[in-house]
Amino acid sequence: MLTRRYCRIAAVVFFLFAAYPLVVKLAEHRLAHDWAHVVLHLLSMLAAVYAGWIAATDLPARLFTWAVGVGYTLLGTVGWFIDGLLLTTPLAIPLAPVDNVFHLALGLAALAVLARDRNVRTVPGTSGRLG
Asked: E strands of the chain, at which residues?
């Protein structure tokens, strides 16, 4: 199913977008300013791994794809108008332009997958499989 494939790809993307800042910010002693953001991306990666590879049904993949599609598209849009979330707390999540692009790319890709998946599943006389 398309949503499972999306989850598998998203897991790799989440890993890369968490590992690179983690290594760089640790080396530069700047992780204290953005650790919650890194942790959220790692948790999202774990959820994507579960939904894409481990879950027995497609439901977790569909739910994860919906959550990323709606949540990340909203966050990527709002991020252009605010500097971040919880900025005056130890859980600060700064949102730079690269974060907004990342969130929009993942969110819009999820919405596209959901739209495509819906079309595939509603075509009469098909099993819901591609090709």
From this structure: 84-85, 93-94
Q: Which domain holds residue 43?
A: 2-122
User: What's the pLDDT tens digit per position in 52-74?
Assistant: 999 999 999 999 999 999 999 99
128 in a structural domain = no
* Of 75, 21, 68, the residue nearest 48 (C-alpha): 68
Higher pLDDT, 126 or 57: 57
In a domain, 131, yes or no: no
Domain membership flag for residue 74: yes
- At 111, list the tokens: 């919405």
Q: Which of 33, 106, 18 is nearest to 66 (CA)?
A: 106
- Nearest CA-CA partner of 78 in 98, 41, 104: 104
Could you tell me the maximum CA-CA distance found in the chain, to the nearest angstrom?
Answer: 58
pLDDT in tens, 19-38: 988 888 888 887 787 889 89
127 lies in some domain: no
Domain count, the chain: 1
Two structure tokens written together for 58: 């497609």
Q: At what angle do helices 2-27 and 59-78 cross, to 10 degrees?
A: 50
